[in-house]
Structure formats: structure tokens, C-alpha cells
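Take a specimen:
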Amino acid sequence: MIRTRRNLLDRFMNILTLLFVLTGSVRADDSNVTQSACWQDNAVTYARIMSRVKWTPVAEGMPRRGGQFEMGKVYTGVPYSSVKAEGRYIGFDIFLKTFLAAVENPHSVLYTETLKGKVTNAECYYGKVCSSYTSYALQCGIWYVSRLHGPEHRDGIVEVDSQSAQTARVGDVVFTPPESKGGGSHIEIVTEITRNKDGSVTHVRIEESWPQTTRTTNRKSSVFNTHLAARNRKLYRITDLDAWRGDNRAESFLFPNYKEDSATPEINRVLLLDRGDWVPYFKGQPVKFNVMDRDARGVRTLVIKQGDKVVETIPLSGRCVVERPFSNCGDYTAHCVLEDGSQSSACEFAVCDLDFTAPKSPVPLGKPWELQLRSDNMKPIIVHLNNGHNGYAHRNVFITDEDRRKGRVVIPADLITEKAKIQIWMIGENRYGRLKKRRDVFVGQQP
């Protein structure tokens, strides 16, 4: 059988686009995403960063739906967890390597904390859900919830005329609407089309975030058609990626960082942080250093530095967990001096301040209102307005350089059109990841 991702015309357009890039007609940047006919190939590559990664829990206690991930068992794909403002989304809030480092630390938040009972549809402190998975693959700076992927809410996307395997293409998304008001919806992405020698589609491969980890299903065309027909699913095609994303483009932000996420990390075997490695903390938040010494080399001291300045040297008598809060914002490293006088690899982390002041609640409906910004070693980038009562009413305000200079951001009057309790998530980022600060306000009269 001949495997192909699109027809010959698509391939021809890909070649033309690559020629433009190589000749300088389109600006290419290894760290960024460019609009081209190849974005579908990028989407497949990025989806598979998350769906094909393998990891093995080193301790009991890592929560998942219906129980715990098993210690010593190899899992494929990142865990499913709707972390919202409380935890951190893999790929958007943290590097994939940060998650992998946390997996190797038996005292990390993966094993010692749970979001179950605190956040709906969440268990693990780090995770992904269907919408953050597809939005990551589709090169967004922040996820679109699944029900906001379609043409009713986005430009540059259409419903495919003939809803079948024969018309499916790589990069298409399959939307499952909620079965009831307030119910959950779902989004999947097509990552491979298989054709026979006559050109007919024989299989359609779908990848998605699904409990307990990501899921890959290669369906025969007839089975795919049955899947598509069930639950009023719709096959959508993005015709203009930039129009579909709008201002929500990955290349406008430090995260997602596909280059870092696709690289194979070297995980520290002597020392790890409670949140893994390469990760930001809030100012004043305790940082827990797990001196593991997994190769039994012997440890003398733990050395913590801010830049080139030694902050503290802590004598050690063996394996232990050291906890320290930090009041000074900045980028830090920590390493151990071993018995033979050599140094271990260093863990890297940042201490940051991110906060905002919201107007007195309730906020008048139909009028603009402001948020006052405060940050240190963290760049405020997005105000995410989460309407817990209406999944179609989530909105993002992208913070400009002018907003940051003035220290405030204006929420437009027409952004929220109904009375509701709104979660305000202030999202900031630096080179190690993102932090989120949440406050709630009522828009319109408080019930």
C-alpha cells in the first residue's frame, strides 16, 4: 500500500513553499512557525512530540482517572489532566522535559500533589487535555477549548463538504459536540491518511489527548466513517492557519517551544526539584531540592546560586530533601559537590512575581474595565477570561508592550456580553515556563 499525507497537488505546493523559504521570499526562523502549505506536516510532528514520548513512574501516588499510574510501568504519551489555573499544561506552561524530570523525582508534585477534587476533570498536577493537545499541534500560543475550534467561532476553517474518510486530510480536526447543555466536547486531529494503489483511502489515523494518556487510533475507512457519523461529529478543515489562530500564534511567545520539547533531555541523577527542572516558581514559594544521589557517588554540599552569586552552601550528610523559599526574583541554579570534589549537573529554576489588581466586583456589564499589572522576572502575556457557566464564552486578551509599559491592560466592553462569574487568569512567561494567577469577578449584578 502507498502511504501519503495529501494528494500530489498538495505536495507540489509544499515544494513551492519550501523553495520560497530557501530563496528568502519567506522569512524562516528555526525557533518559530511560519505560515506555509507545510503547517499540516508541522502539526503532525508537534502532535507526536506529546503522543510518542515514553516515561516510567519511579514511585507510587501519581494520580490518574480511576486510580494511580503504576510504578515501574512504561507509559506512552503525556498524562490527561485538565489542570486549568491550578496545575500546569505540558507544552504551554512547562517544557516536556520539565515533566520528564518530575517523573524521575519520587518527591515531585506528580507524586505528592493531586488536583482531584480541586479542579473538574483533573488529577495529575502536570497534564494535557484534548484542546491543549490539538492547539499545541496547531501552533497556538494558548489553547482554544474544543468547542471554539470550528467555523462558528473561528475564521479560516470550514466544515468539509463530504464527511467521510475519502475526503479527510492530514491536519483536519474532528469535533464531538457536547451531548447536553454544559456537557463536555472533544477534539481530535488527523495525522495520517493511508491510500491503496488506486488512490482510495483505506485508513485514517487520529491522535488525541484522552484518559489516561494520549491515544492513537488508525481506523479503516469504514470504521472512521462510522466514528464520524456517531454523536453528530464534524470533520473540519483549516484553510488558513493564520486566520484561524488570529493573534494566538506560537511564534509570538516563548512557549510552546517545539525545539526544546523535541530534544532528548539529560535528566539530573543527583539532584531534582519538586517541580522537576527548568521551571519557574512564585516569589516566596518553597523550592524543595531532592538530593537523590541515584548513582551513590556521595554528596558533600548543596550549592544554590543566583546568576554567578552563591546564595547558600548547605552541608549534606547523604540523601535528603532541602526546602528553601526565595524572596529575590531572578534565575537560579543548584548543584551538589560530590565526595570526590566534582560537581553534579545543575538544576535550573526561576523565582518570579506575577500578580494583578482587579476592579471591585461586580464589574459593570457593557463597559470597559482595567487590570493593574505587577511582575518581576516574568512577562505578562495573556489575560484569559474563563466563564465557568458557558464554555463558549472563554476569551483571551493579548497583552501588548504598551500595556506592560503602562502597567495595565483594558478589557474591552464588548468582550463579555452576559452576567456571569468570571475567572481571570493572568498568564506570564519567562524562558523557563509560565505562571498563572487567578482572581474571580462578577460581571453584571452579583447573584
